[in-house]
Amino acid sequence: MTDPRTALVLFSGGQDSTACLAWALDRYARVETIGFDYGQRHRIELDCRQTVRRELAAAFPHWAARLGEDHVLDLSLLGQISACALTEARAIELQRNGLPNTFVPGRNLLFLGFAATLAYRRGASVLVGGMCETDFSGYPDCRDNTLKALQVALSLGLDAPMTIETPLMWLTKAQTWALTDALGGERLNALIVEHTHTCYLGQRGQLYPWGHGCGSCPACTLRRQGWEAWQAAR
Ligand code: ZN
Known about the structure:
- With 234 residues, this protein is α/β, with parallel strands linked by helices.
- The protein is built from 7 helices and 7 strands; from the N terminus they run βαβααβαβαβαββα.
- It has helices spanning 15-25, 43-59, 61-64, 107-122, 144-158, 173-195, 218-233, and strands at 3-10, 28-37, 67-74, 126-128, 163-165, 207-208, 211-212.
- It has a 5-stranded parallel beta sheet with strand order 3-2-1-4-5, with helices on both faces. The protein has a two-stranded antiparallel sheet with strand order 6-7.
- The radius of gyration is 17 Å and the shape is globular.
- Zinc ion is lined by residues 199-201, 203, 213-214, 217, 219-220.
């Protein structure tokens, strides 16, 4: 049973958004992707996006038929309102994931706003994002109620239905591996291990069982722990 709507997936090239892309390709008649270019640190993720799209299409022909255009928006203007801006009045704090909150607060509200505008133009009425309350849920703009409120605001503001789907909202990192296993089996998880990017330091060098990365930054640690928990639970 295919949902006839077009979905626009917020796709960064990481594990979570690749899981969201697979989830959407399994469900919707047509799926497009959107990425945001907002700084050099994310260059590797942006490169991984194209590889993951290509590999998914090659490995899953029935998904390839549904996979539509990719869009990358230049959001370099976010640098103007990040914590290094001279206007910053709030103290830099450490978040629960061990990283400082130096980036733009509420950025997911901005991303989804831009995505909704693009979706409207593209005839898409579903936005899919990897926001999650389960693992490091320190971000208030990732919370379920925030996104439900935003869905209402966007649908009213566009005067068109705009559904926000967050398939990972209540999943642990281990359960995200289980989800992609259910969607595409070993082949999909091998693709995610090999081609998606996670490391905060932007390292791709070594390939661990759970993927490439430095192996010790908070993002690598979270991904490794999720992988190990999934392996233990199988
Ligand atoms: Zn790392």
